[in-house]
Structures are given as structure tokens and as C-alpha cells.
């Protein structure tokens, strides 16, 4: 239920005595100095302060999770983390689930300091980070542009001691440590006229009353000891500002329980390193978090609180170097297949591959050694076929699927990538990699720009070194199919309508190395290939390998070219999509 929490002074006293602490699910302090100043101005103007969410933790549960103290003296370089409470108070605790940023802002403003880097100064020098404390200008005038009525600012001691005209700086922390009457009397010692003294006294009086007398704190106290229940409440209440996802909270729980490794940095660094491989990817921290669960053989791979207990997180930390190596090897393998953030439709598809590499303890030599060529091709074929399914293999029911795939890989990995076993368990879950005639017809005319087009072309034309930055290219250039160009080529209106968007579909697409693609531009294909392959016989053999029987020179004959190549590609697609499981059954 909602309860009154008293004054700001009382709140800060409870922070100081560690009656209020932070659970591991909280983020770092992220407010800038300007936000702190705006908060204090809002309090002075009587604006609503918002409700806090507190969690009463019984003494029996206090040892299950780690807790942190509030930041007081923030330093952008040296002291930006909340400090771990190695020995939290041996009593019932109140953990702050919602309100950390506001409470920390008050703590810094009234009890601490804020040091941020000055422009043009070297990061390594202490002088680049002068200590600043929060001050209130007692002669404040409203700022119409910002809407602020009271001028709060973080200043160095020197800045505060050398005010400009119209400034009388009062260090805000004094309101907690000095007698009110003495503070008011000190204004008489200032060189101010009668009106200035009146303004300064009124501002100081309001500030003192705001901190000491106004009951501005309201909180909701949750007594349910289920962390999962509390997290769900937190997410609903935290819809404003920068929203926290459930996985954000679980990540905080996970990293807070590592003992030796700076887990947050380790996870973020792995994400960055994975995304810098090849032509670039867009893997997320959520994927890496799920990879930790999967590769460490922790329960299910679902984002559930029970999977993030101390014992499991200790296992994850111990296994982290090997997990990192397996994830990097997996993304390097995908890059060698030609995948990147543009054509990898489902980031989760990397997880079974990473688990396989992890289970077999494979290293970087796996990418090139001839003895693994067949194994690599099995992985490539299985991955691509899973990505070609329009229904989406890697969508709903993902956690259940990944857990089942992990079980099969664990049992069969030492004999090679277990394609047949994986496909069997996928089929049982309604995620069959068998393709119907309708699906094959759809694949035969995939459009340019579809996330599956590159994968399909790489599957049916396996002879390319896809690590060399291949692109999906139009055989007959797009620019030749504008209405103006078709009119110029003598294509009548009826024939133009029959063209539709065929020039943008699979039968008019090929894989071409990026540098060559730039050279090709708007050349007609018969002209381009005559330059690339001057020998007629060699050219014919090369084109046959691309399922191009003839390159028509007249654009009016393009529909004939299209239908002929579509049928040839369909045969290739059918052959490529016959799974190893089906082949094994046939033999």
C-alpha cells in the first residue's frame, strides 16, 4: 500500500544509515548535473516528486542477493559505480526498486559532489575532473526559456567564491549541517541592499522548508518476497523515462553476482567484438545473456529469475572465457558464410552453433581445416534452411526450442554437427525444415531486399568465397526497367505491364563481389560478361554454372529469360532443400 515517507532530510538520513539500500537489479546512476538541478528547482516550486517503490526484504532473504550503497561523491572517471555493501546491516532491509536516480540526485546534491571531465583536458589528469558541489543562487530570477524559477548549479569552491553580479551562492549541503537561524543571520554579512537581503532570506527560507519540513516523500512498499513478482511491478511502474526491459533487470542481477570479472564490461565488450566481425552484425546483450545460460547448461534458457541465482551465476563466471571464445568463433563462422546484420534474419540462430562449438571445444582452426569442411557445410546448410522458412523458426517458442536443441547437441556433438537429430526434434515442435511445393514456388521468386534472398542464393550456388563481401546483384540492371527506359527500348504498354516487378525477383538476381558490382553498374549483361569472359566457351560454361542458358540482348525478351531461369533455379532449390535427414532415410 502507499505510505507517507516524510521529508527529504529524513530520506537522506536513512540513506546515510543504510536503512535504504540498492539491490543488484538497479542500474548505474545516469543523471547529468543539469537533471539534478532541475529536480531541486521542481521541489522548490512544489511540483509532484513522484512515488518510490520500496521492497521490504526479510532477514532470512538478505543473503540471497548482493546490495549496494547509494552514490554520494560521483566522479565520471574514478567513482561512477554504486559501491558494493560487503556486510549489509544484519536486520530487515528496505531495497529501493524505483526512485534510485532521484534519491541519488538528492544524495549528491545535499551530501556529496559531482566531478565530470572538462573539455580539452586529458582524461588521465586529475585536474580534468574538478570537484563541484551543488549551490543555490539566493538571488535567483526565473528563467523563462527553461521554466526554472530557482538557479541551482554545480560549482567548484573557487567559482562559488567569485560570484558575478546578481549572484549569491549558497552551498546546498549546509542546510543539513548548520543551524537555520545562523544561516539566515549570515545573509546580513553579505554586501546586499535591502531588497537583495529580502530576496536572499526568502529563497533560503523556502529551501530550508523544502528539505526539512515538507512531507514530499510517498512510497509503495512491497512485502512479497518473490523477486519475479517484484520485477514485474517494477517494469510496469518504470514505463516513463528510459524503460527497463525484464532482461535488463536480469542482466543486472547476473552481473552483480560475479566475483572476479567486471561482468557488465565483459558482456558489453563481447557484444561489440561480435558486431565488428566481417561486414558487421547487430547482436544484442540479450543474446549474449541467453548464450550464457545455454552454453553453461543452466536449466532452461528462459529469462526467468530462478535461472539467475548465485550458484548458476558462479558457473557462468567460471565458464565465461570459453563462452566468449565459442561466441566469437560462431560469429566468425557466420561471417565466412557471408552473413551480416543485413541478411541474418534471426540472431538467435547463432546459439545452437555456438553451443556445438563450445561442446566440442573447437578453436579458430575449425574455420579453415580441410577435415572440418563437411561439418562446416552441414552447419551452413542447416542454418540457411532454418532462415528460409517464412513462418519463422526462431520466433515463438524459442526458449523451449533452444533447450531441446541443446540436449540433442550435447548427446551427439562428438560425432559431428547432428543435423538429422536437430531436424527431428524441430519437427516435433512444429518447426519442420521440410519445404512444400508452395513454399518452394515462393522461394523461386523471392524479391530483392528480402532477408532470405542472399541466404538462398548462397545455398544454391555454393562455390563462392563469401568472406569476400558478396552482394545481391541484378543480372539485368534495375535502371533498364524504368518506364522511360522501356519505352526507349521499344517495349509496348501491354508488354511493360507484364514485366511487373520481375526484374526485382530471384530469377534476375545473382551474387557478385562488391567491387565487381560497382564496376558493372548499368551495363547489359551480354556486354558485361563479354568483357569479363572474352573466350566464348569459357563464358558459356561460367553462365551455365549460374543457370543462365542465354543472355537475351533485346530487353523485350526479358520475360523469356526470366521464366527459363526461374525453372532452373527451382530445380536447384529443391535439391538444396533436401535435408540430410531425408537423405539418410533414403539411403
From TrEMBL:
It holds the Pfam family GmrSD_N. This is GmrSD restriction endonucleases N-terminal domain-containing protein. It comes from the Bacteria. Residues 8-252 form the GmrSD restriction endonucleases N-terminal domain. InterPro entries: GmrSD_N.
Amino acid at each position: 500500500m502507499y505510505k507517507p515517507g516524510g521529508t527529504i532530510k529524513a530520506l537522506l538520513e536513512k540513506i546515510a544509515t543504510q536503512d535504504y539500500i540498492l539491490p543488484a537489479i538497479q542500474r548505474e546512476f545516469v543523471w547529468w548535473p543539469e537533471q539534478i538541478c532541475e529536480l531541486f528547482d521542481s521541489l522548490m516550486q512544489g511540483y509532484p516528486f513522484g512515488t518510490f517503490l520500496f521492497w521490504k526484504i526479510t532477514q532470512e532473504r538478505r543473503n540471497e542477493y548482493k546490495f549496494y550503497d547509494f552514490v554520494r561523491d560521483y566522479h565520471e572517471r574514478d567513482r561512477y559505480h554504486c559501491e558494493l555493501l560487503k556486510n549489509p546491516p544484519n536486520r530487515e532491509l528496505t531495497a529501493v526498486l524505483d526512485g534510485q536516480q532521484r534519491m541519488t540526485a538528492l544524495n549528491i546534491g545535499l551530501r556529496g559532489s559531482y566531478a565530470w571531465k572538462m573539455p580539452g583536458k586529458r582524461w588521465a589528469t586529475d585536474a580534468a575532473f574538478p570537484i563541484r558541489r551543488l549551490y543555490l543562487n539566493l538571488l535567483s530570477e526565473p528563467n523563462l526559456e527553461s521554466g526554472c524559477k530557482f538557479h541551482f548549479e554545480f560549482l567548484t569552491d573557487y567559482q562559488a567564491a567569485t560570484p558575478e553580479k546578481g549572484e549569491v551562492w549558497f552551498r546546498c549541503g549546509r542546510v543539513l549541517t548548520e543551524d537555520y537561524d545562523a544561516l539566515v543571520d549570515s545573509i546580513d554579512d553579505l554586501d546586499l541592499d535591502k531588497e537583495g537581503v529580502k530576496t536572499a532570506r526568502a529563497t533560503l527560507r523556502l529551501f530550508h522548508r523544502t528539505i526539512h519540513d515538507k512531507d514530499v516523500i510517498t512510497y509503495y512498499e512491497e512485502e512479497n518476497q518473490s523477486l519475479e513478482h517484484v520485477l514485474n511491478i517494477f517494469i510496469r511502474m518504470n514505463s516513463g523515462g528510459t524503460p527497463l526491459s525484464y532482461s535488463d533487470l536480469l542482466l543486472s542481477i547476473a552481473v552483480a553476482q560475479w566475483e572476479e570479472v567486471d561482468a557488465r564490461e565483459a558482456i558489453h565488450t563481447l557484444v561489440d567484438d561480435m558486431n565488428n566481425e566481417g561486414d558487421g552484425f547487430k547482436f544484442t546483450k540479450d543474446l549474449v545473456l541467453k548464450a550464457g545460460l545455454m552454453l553453461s547448461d543452466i536449466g532452461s534458457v528462459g529469462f526467468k529469475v530462478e535461472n539467475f541465482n548465485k550458484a548458476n551465476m558462479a558457473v557462468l563466471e567460471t565458464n565465461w572465457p570459453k563462452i566468449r571464445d565459442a561466441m566469437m568463433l560462431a560469429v566468425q563462422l557466420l561471417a565466412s558464410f557471408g552473413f551480416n546484420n543485413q541478411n541474418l534474419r534471426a540472431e538467435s540462430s547463432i546459439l545452437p552453433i555456438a553451443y556445438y562449438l563450445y561442446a566440442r571445444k573447437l578453436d579458430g582452426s575449425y574455420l579453415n581445416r580441410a577435415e572440418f569442411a563437411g561439418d562446416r557445410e552441414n552447419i551452413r546448410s542447416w542454418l540457411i534452411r532454418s532462415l528460409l522458412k517464412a513462418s519463422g523458426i526462431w520466433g515463438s517458442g524459442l526458449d523451449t526450442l533452444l533447450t531441446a536443441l541443446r540436449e540433442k547437441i550435447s548427446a551427439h556433438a562428438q560425432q559431428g554437427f547432428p543435423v538429422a537429430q536437430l531436424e527431428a526434434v524441430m519437427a516435433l515442435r512444429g518447426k519442420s525444415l521440410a519445404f512444400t511445393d508452395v513454399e518452394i514456388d515462393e522461394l523461386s521468386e523471392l524479391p530483392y531486399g528480402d532477408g532470405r534472398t542472399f541466404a538462398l542464393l548462397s545455398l544454391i550456388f555454393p562455390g563462392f568465397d563469401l568472406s569476400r563481401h558478396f552482394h545481391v546483384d541484378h543480372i539485368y540492371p534495375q535502371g533498364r526497367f524504368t518506364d522511360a527506359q522501356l519505352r526507349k527500348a521499344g517495349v509496348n504498354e501491354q508488354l511493360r505491364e507484364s514485366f511487373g516487378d520481375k526484374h526485382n525477383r530471384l530469377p534476375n538476381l545473382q551474387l557478385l563481389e562488391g567491387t565487381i558490382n560497382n564496376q558493372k553498374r548499368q551495363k547489359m549483361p551480354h556486354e558485361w560478361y563479354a568483357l569479363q569472359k572474352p573466350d566464348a566457351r569459357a563464358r558459356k560454361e561460367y553462365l551455365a554454372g549460374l543457370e543462365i542458358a542465354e543472355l537475351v540482348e533485346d530487353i523485350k525478351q526479358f520475360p523469356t529469360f526470366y521464366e527459363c531461369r526461374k525453372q532452373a533455379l527451382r530445380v536447384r532449390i529443391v535439391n538444396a532443400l533436401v535435408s540430410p535427414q531425408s537423405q539418410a532415410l533414403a539411403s
